[in-house]
Amino acid sequence: MTLTDRPAAAVSNPLEPDRLVARLRATFDSGATRPLAWRRQQLEAMQRLLVERESELLDALHQDLGKPAIEGWMTELRHVANEISDMLRHLEGWVKPERVGVRTVLRPARATVVSEPVGVVLVIAPWNYPVHLLLLPMAYALAAGNAVVGKPSEMSSATSAALARWVAAYLDRDAVCIVEGDAPVVTALLAQRWDYIFYTGNGRVGRIVMKAAAEHLTPVTLELGGKSPVIVANGANLDVAAKRIAWGKFVNAGQTCVAPDYVLVDRQVESRFVDALVRAVRHFYGSDPQSSPDYARVINERHWDRLHGLLADASPSQVVLGGQGDRASRYLAPTILRDATWDDPVMSEEIFGPILPVLAVDGVGAAIATINAHDKPLALYVFAEDQAVIDRVVAETSSGGVGANVTLLQLAVADLPFGGVGESGMGAYHGKFGFDTFSHRKAVLQRTTRMDPSVTYPPYTNLKQRLLRKVF
Ligand code: NAD
């Protein structure tokens, strides 16, 4: 099958949404998903799926996104499998009630925080990392002992079909289900009562999800996007910065939520940095990236047109690399724009494609002021050799996360929370944060009945009042 010859978005509803949720709720209510052994079985089954169905999944990712196999393996299959290994290692510790201290007046007593599964969970995923962004939240929901419905994106239709097929084959069908389909299918799902909704995608749909969730007071995590900036300071290691920024930008053809969206470079090193960036891209993808097996494609014609449109107003002197494309095969060259301004179309929205505008600024203070004048980004990157510059950027800006002299790889540290702030989202997952997302932390206080001092009971005599004022 060629890149353009894809099956139409499939809609396979095994059951009507209300019957589906009722079935999963019955499973959850039966207690079947709570034992540690069941959770482990599901996580191990998902790992087996990722290993045994590797070639089918990588083929599907290639059909959808022209995703190079090693990128698909590294950033999707292996990444999820690695985090599941961490989950399996830590699960016993995570589920253990956590003992907390009690004040003297309440003793003897035992206070614990007990993590209980929230119930029936809906995970809605986008198309850019369609395996990772569906299966990883689902895995955390299962680790926490829930029943879960996953809704892959209809735009990555080959991967959606593969996931529907293999999840049904490997996981417990009474508790785990994939529902394929587009917006009307999501609308029907959102009309149900869920115990948690985990949505990854754009802020417009994020608002629709949150409104629907409010009907049932269902808590949500919204993993959204936005324009993630990069600061390149005077004194940064420009060659390494250029390589790391180019890699973070052009992997998956720029369709990564934490991809560097634009660069704010110190004016004094702008030319040297842009030269290094061009060298890095040529080194990665050669002089003809269209023939490179290591370069992905834009998801569909609509997004290709959008990206092409963002370039329409760029002057030839701005385009220092790339600019060419081929709509039929959804190829858009890795493109670098210099002398970009905030009036340019590329700066008006999240680019989410292989176009990197570079804007010169007068120092780190100006870069920080620019970032703070815009929405809080999902990721913020700073390249500097001076620790004081890095510390200043961390202290004076707000973002979902920060990468210093690195791009994207903050995601690979399972113990770091991954999530946005403000317009880039709410809530976070990965590691214990993922387990906690899908758990209710229940407060439990237990006291002995062997002693029952009457000091807190009425009548509040003067003596009792004096005592209470001393010990309470
Ligand atoms: P998308 O179009 O695939 O949408 C995501 C999901 O929303 C899909 O499952 C889709 O079926 C559903 N959907 C679409 N329209 C809907 C509607 N009207 N009502 C209900 N549901 C609807 O993906 P997208 O939103 O284009 O994804 C790209 C965005 O996601 C970018 O902004 C990117 O930065 C962000 N993103 C964020 C993360 C993160 O982890 N924070 C990861 C990847 C992508």
Low-pLDDT ranges:
1-12
Please identify which CATH superfamily of the largest domain we are dealing with.
Aldehyde Dehydrogenase, Chain A, domain 1
In what order do the strands lie side by side in the largest sheet? 10-13-14-9-8-15-16
Named once each, the bound ligands are: nicotinamide-adenine-dinucleotide
pLDDT averaged residue by residue? 95
Distance between the termini: 73 Å
Q: Percent of residues in helical segments? A: 40-55%
Query: Roughly what fraction of the amino acids lie in strands?
Result: 15-25%
What would you call the shape?
Answer: globular
| Number of strand segments | 18
Q: Give the helix tally.
A: 15
**Helical/strand content category:** alpha/beta
Largest sheet: 7 strands, mixed
Rg: 25 Å
Task: Count up the domains.
Answer: 2
CATH class of the largest domain: Alpha Beta
Question: Judging by the overall fold, what is the CATH architecture of the largest domain?
Answer: 3-Layer(aba) Sandwich
Q: CATH topology of the largest domain, what is it called?
A: Aldehyde Dehydrogenase, Chain A, domain 1
